[in-house]
Amino acid sequence: MKKFIIFIFLLSNFITFLNASEQLIVVITDDFNTSTAQLKRYEKKNNLFIQIGNAITVNLGRNGLGWGIGNQPIAHLENDPQKHEGDGKAPAGIFTLGPVFGYKDTLATNMPYIQASNDLICIDDSRSAHYNQLKKIRPDIEFNSFEWMRRSDNFYEIGLTVHHNTHAIAYRGSCIFFHVEKAPGSATAGCTSMQYDHLKTLLSWLDPKRNPLLIQIPASYCSEVEKQFQGICN
């Protein structure tokens, strides 16, 4: 009974957070198998979400979308694809965001920021106690698989952390980011990528005081999600 009460308390807190959200990043694909999508930004005004700026084209996982583990479950069909480690799918769902990261000391953003130093990694080893975490390499941290956050290319020159699978459930996916695209239409391993200037604009727009959220879904689920976030399907 105690665990149930705690669960209800946490769920109630997050529903309150959802209702308090005044900024949305909405990424909508044609279907689960599509590796490109339209991204729109919204701000809440008088209980209605109004689009800010123009829609942009972004790239998703090479195998499209699979339901991830976000901050609020969305009712869906049992046979819909699920996000798993290494499946080439970006996570579908509703997610909180941050921190922002980048190669430089500072970045024009109101979000919490961390510099991607030469020793910063993201651990994608499902068997590690540090699975799905950003860490600086130390001898006492055990893992067999990871990715560098400071790369030789500009993929992570600026980026945004997506809170997918924050409880680090093994094999359910890790290290999900918004980052700079390789090229227009170039699919990712599971992240969401876009042109540098578009990402820079997005990061400067985000305001943690407005409780920003990412909604990343196939178009068939937009009307269901819009019941809570009015205006996002226009």
E-strand count: 13
Order of helical and strand elements: HEEEEEEEEEEEEHEH
Query: Which parts are unreliable, with pLDDT below 50 for 5 consecutive residues or more?
Result: 1-14
State the helix count. 3
**Count of all domains:** 1
Percent helix among the residues? 10-25%
What is the C-alpha radius of gyration, as a whole number of Å? 17 Å
Tell me the distance between the termini: 43 Å
Give a summary of the structure in a few sentences.
Helix content is 14%, strand content 32%.
Structure notes:
- This protein has 234 residues and is α/β, with parallel strands linked by helices.
- The protein contains 3 helices and 13 strands.
- It has one domain.
- The chain has helices at residues 2-20, 196-205, 222-225; strands at residues 23-29, 36-45, 48-59, 65-67, 90-102, 113-115, 120-123, 134-136, 146-148, 158-162, 177-180, 192-194, 213-218.
- Strands 1, 2, 3, 4, 5, 6, 10, 11, 12 and 13 form a 10-stranded mixed β-sheet that branches. Strands 8-7-9 form a 3-stranded antiparallel β-sheet, with no helix packed on it.
- Residues 1-14 have low confidence and may be disordered.
Describe the SSE topology.
Elements lengths: L1 H19 L2 E7 L6 E10 L2 E12 L5 E3 L22 E13 L10 E3 L4 E4 L10 E3 L9 E3 L9 E5 L14 E4 L11 E3 L1 H10 L7 E6 L3 H4 L9
Q: Top keywords for this entry?
A:
3 helices; alpha/beta; single chain; 13 strands; 3-stranded antiparallel beta sheet; 234 residues
